[in-house]
Amino acid sequence: MTPDFNWAEELNCAVTVCDRDGVLLYMNSRARETFAKYGDLIGQNLMHCHNEASQAKIRHMLATGESNSYTISKNGQRKMIYQTPWRHDGEIAGMVEISMVIPDEMPHYIR
Known about the structure:
Layout: E1 14-19, E2 24-27, H1 29-34, H2 52-64, E3 68-74, E4 77-88, E5 91-102
């Protein structure tokens, strides 16, 4: 089953989606722009572009349904990365990664 990703196409963040085996199903325009130098990655396995520690984390998320989030600095920008499994009929079907540029200083609220 391939979900409809039209809502994500013009988001102001990169959205990348893979299936349970790590095969890339979708990259929105921002994600395609980010990884353009590698060509069309749809249909490729994302495990090939990750080190062993990252591969282990991805396998863990796909096995357990846990999410992962962290920040990075890349090309002079600070980014928040959020990775989480997506489900179909209650079963883990793959993983979504959302990468967004964030400011160096961000307000934090207790609600």
